[in-house]
Amino acid sequence: MIFEHAVGIVKVNRDALIPTDDGTKIAVGAVKVLADTPIMLSTDFGSQWSESVCTSDSFIYGIDTVAKKIWRTNGQNFECISDFKVQKFLNDNITLGERELTPIIGVRNVKTHYNANKKDVMFTFYDNTYGFEEKVWNLCWNEYQQAFTTFYSWVPSFSENIDNIYFSYNRDVSKWLAKLAMSNADSINASGVCAGSVTLPNGGGWKTYLYLKDRPLPTNDSSGVEFTYTLERDHWGNS
Q1: What's the whole-model pTM score?
Q2: Residue 50, domain member (yes or no)
């Protein structure tokens, strides 16, 4: 069980679980679900970012963005593998604090990936929602060597191991799609200067115009389409 600032082991009372139609089991009624008091492995470090927690064949890994630590546990022992190795890098390059808790795929997220074929654990971080400098990196730990081995120049947004083959999905595409959804100033996830009120011609209200390669912008008359817009601060007041 992973808390924001703690990691523990929880034993579940089997009698408190009943099977559902899809084969999973859920807790019901007032039956005690926890068989025993949780065993705490750490009361100092955990993770606020659920996707930063990843399971390999031997360990559970996680990133604590508040303490700026990378940790792992095998269910018996708990250790911070970033200590004395990459700690200064994490101190300088983890920019997310306790305020930013919502992942925006491609724009803001902390995610750990596992390549079962190479035994690589990749700790990825990207933050493109504050200021003009984007923080993005992909730090790799290898379980064969038990050490940090490299920085990858690519940063996946999603990944999966299928038949011991590692597949990943380009973060740049996810970023492009997310930015489209955040371009309006009314969006709570908008970043920096963005489009505010837009006025289309002829008082027609909102319309959808399709931009196609090698084709002119569709118009209602020979004079072409003209529209006005404003640039406004985003939801957080960044300008």
Answers
A1: 0.69
A2: yes
Residues in the chain, overall count: 239
Contacts of 55 (CB under 8 A, 6+ apart): 61, 114
In the structure encoding, which two tokens stand for residue 107, read together? 């724009």
Q: Is residue 143 part of a domain?
A: yes
Q: Which residues lie across from 61 on neighbouring strands?
A: 54, 72
- Of the pLDDT bands very low, low, confident and very high (cuts 50, 70, 90), residue 211 is very low
30 domain-assigned: no
Which of 85-99, 106-120, 154-168 has the weakest average pLDDT? Answer: 85-99
Backbone angles phi, psi at 62, to 5 degrees: -160, 160
What letter represents residue 26's amino acid? I
Would you list the DSSP string of 7-57? EEE--B-GGGEEE-TTS-EEE-TT---BSS--EEEESS---S-GGG-EE-S
194 beta partners: 232
Least confident of 20-29, 147-156, 176-185, 216-225: 216-225
Residue numbers of the domain that contains 235: 182-239
Q: Are strands 108-115 and 120-127 parallel, antiparallel or unpaired?
A: antiparallel
Q: What share of the chain is helix, strand, coil (3-state, %, to 5)?
A: 10, 35, 55
pLDDT confidence band for 237 (50 / 70 / 90): low
Report how far residue 25's alpha carbon sits from residue 124's, in angstroms, rounded to the nearest whole number: 32
> How many helices and strands (H and E) does the chain possess?
2, 16
Residues 217 and 191 in one domain: yes
| Pairing outcome for strands 25-27 and 17-19 | antiparallel
